[in-house]
From TrEMBL:
InterPro entries: AA/rel_permease1, CAT_C
Organism from which the protein derives: Dyadobacter koreensis
Pfam families per the UniProt record, alphabetical: AA_permease_2, AA_permease_C
Molecular function terms, GO-annotated: amino acid transmembrane transporter activity
Protein name, as recorded: Amino acid/polyamine/organocation transporter, APC superfamily
Domain Cationic amino acid transporter C-terminal, chain residue ranges per copy: 515-558
Membrane topology: Multi-pass membrane protein
């Protein structure tokens, strides 16, 4: 029993606040206000998504995708409100990791902290590589060409060259031809072809240096980049409005509700980033007041921008033409405004840079907080005496992101990143239910608006089941065709979703749970069912590695280990 209790030992809010202010090297610089936090949130949210995700979602759902952005934003608000309550209750760096420590105990806190590495560090590898592609394309627009072997990962180049040797040049796509050529012309040192994605590594080093120097400099850079990219987005909206043809909005939902909902996961990912605000709580002047405001403000601003952009895009060209990786630039090239297309290309580089900055800012602060608790090595919590930043953790983050970005193809990890994100979101929403039930929320300066879900959660379940029975015959037939093994392989998460809804209905009836956090749990859990099984398999392996580290170091070194009864 003692072992189980120790695995789920919890930190009190007072303990966390004392630890945050007892750092030997001095605290972090408190300089961020609401405007700065909103800017950081927009920097994280309005990244590569608005320059790519919108196109595919519009292609599948038509102009009605604009409404999907509204519905998805409402779903995000459930999670954002939960984050805001925790941020006002536990105003320290650490984000979902710290919140899980208070609500669920140390083991869950470690799991979340380990999962957040996927959301921040691993996603930044993908972001850095994405930045490289946009940057190289932008330079080519100005007539500057970087040798191919310095803009690609070795694996892609070697695979393309091998395919060329076995199947001939006719079998290669345009991208594969460039990759194979890069492999052929690359310098050979000691039998190895010198191939690396140099721009991805350089931008990571540059952003890491900026984050290392200080939060003030990072804030200034973020604010400037946000102003630039929002200006370009507004220019696209207003300039594009003159070329909108209302007939392109008919039919509004050409592929029906199914077509619109097919983009729900991609659209949701376009909003991910608001949670990164919570990692800067200790550098905020008044986190208990400003954090909740900033999260809601940045979600509102980004929702309006996304809806307007979607309406303009689908109004300028037919939705069937939007299955491209750069829809904003494409629609202006389509009407002959190459200048606007070039401007958008430059702004996309700025947008992705600002997103990279915010995530590179967040990861070291999570590691710093885990180190304070004894779960990571003490050096991770070291604060630079001059710059007032977590110096060692920042350098490690730069290496962890920059080295793989130089040499690996990270496309596979996009959905894997989302698994970690949804996992964190669910625990934060569940944590608010714990705060309310335990009475800790009495000290919260901001609370999720309380709407009694005693009957509503169960009523919603009955409505959902009735809807399936009357309108979901196709789904029912699909399930009937599956064997038990097939259900376990392909539908396990869906089964977990329905079981969770049943459990939450019972618990809501018993404990009078607020419906908003429950809605956040169910929304995120449903979106998790949209991710592939292979991503879950890798995620489980990732967690297993994390648990080995925890039990070999963190469990024994935890500061709470010395305070057990």
């Amino acid at each position: 029993m003692k072992r189980n209790a120790s695995l789920f030992r919890k930190k009190t809010v007072d303990q966390i606040l004392i630890d945050a202010h007892a750092n030997e090297s001095g605290g972090l610089a408190k300089i961020l206000g609401v405007r700065d936090l909103v800017s950081l949130g927009i920097a994280a949210i309005v990244g590569a998504g608005i320059f790519s995700t919108i196109g595919l979602a519009s292609f599948n759902g038509g102009p009605a995708v604009s409404l999907l952005f509204v519905f998805t934003a409402i779903a995000c608000v459930f999670t954002a409100l939960s984050y805001a309550q925790f941020a006002s209750t536990v105003p320290v760096s650490g984000s979902a990791y710290t919140y899980a420590y208070v609500a669920f105990g140390e083991l869950f806190a470690w799991i979340i902290g380990w999962a957040l590495i996927l959301e921040y560090a691993v996603s930044n590898m993908v972001v850095a590589i994405s930045w490289s592609k946009y940057f190289v394309s932008m330079l080519e627009g100005f007539g500057i060409v970087i040798p191919g072997y310095l803009t690609i990962d070795p694996g892609s180049a070697a695979d393309a060259f091998a395919k060329l040797q076995t199947s001939g040049i006719a079998s290669l796509s345009a991208a594969e031809k460039l990759a194979a050529h890069a492999y052929e012309i690359a310098p050979v040192i000691g039998g190895f072809h010198l191939i690396l994605d140099l721009p991805a590594g350089l931008i990571t080093a540059l952003v890491t240096s900026l984050v290392y120097i200080g939060i003030r400099e990072s804030r200034t850079a973020s604010n400037i980049m946000v102003i630039l990219k929002i200006s370009v987005v507004l220019l696209v909206i207003f300039a594009g409005a003159f070329y909108v043809k209302p007939e392109n909005w008919t039919p509004f939902a050409p592929n029906g509700v199914k077509g619109v909902l097919s983009g729900v996961a991609a659209v949701f990912f376009a909003f991910i980033g608001f949670d990164s605000i919570s990692t800067t709580a200790e550098e905020c002047k008044d986190p208990q007041r400003d954090m909740p405001k900033a999260m809601i403000y940045c979600l509102m601003i980004c929702t309006v921008l996304y809806v307007l952009i979607t309406l303009v895009l689908t109004g300028m060209v037919n939705y069937k033409e939007l299955n491209v990786s750069d829809p904003l630039a494409f629609v202006f090239q389509n009407i002959g405004l190459d200048f606007m297309a070039g401007l958008i290309s430059v702004s996309s580089v700025i947008a992705i840079t600002s997103a990279l900055l915010v995530y590179q800012l967040g990861q070291p602060r999570i590691w710093m907080t885990m180190s304070r608790d004894g779960l990571l090595w003490k050096k991770f919590s070291k604060i630079h005496p001059k710059y007032h930043t977590p110096s060692f953790a920042t350098i490690v983050t730069g290496l962890v992101v920059g080295i793989p970005a130089l040499f690996f193809k990270m496309d596979f990890f996009v959905d894997l990143t989302s698994v970690g994100t949804f996992f964190a979101f669910i625990l934060v929403c569940g944590g608010v239910l714990y705060l309310d039930h335990s009475g800790i929320s009495e000290r919260s300066k901001f609370k999720v608006p309380y709407v009694n879900g005693k009957f509503l959660v169960g009523f919603g379940l009955l409505v959902a089941i009735s809807g399936l029975a009357f309108y979901g015959q196709g789904i029912i037939d699909e399930w009937k065709a599956l064997t038990i093994a097939g259900i376990f392989e392909h539908k396990l998460l869906t089964v977990i979703f329905w079981i969770s809804w049943v459990v939450l209905s019972v618990m809501s009836f018993k404990y009078n749970f607020s419906i908003l956090p429950v809605a956040g749990i169910l929304t995120n859990l449903y979106l998790m069912t949209e991710l592939g099984a292979s991503n879950w398999f890798i995620f489980v392996i990732w967690l297993a590695i994390g648990l080995v580290i925890y039990f070999s170091y963190g469990y024994r070194k935890s500061k709470l280990a010395g305070h057990e009864d």
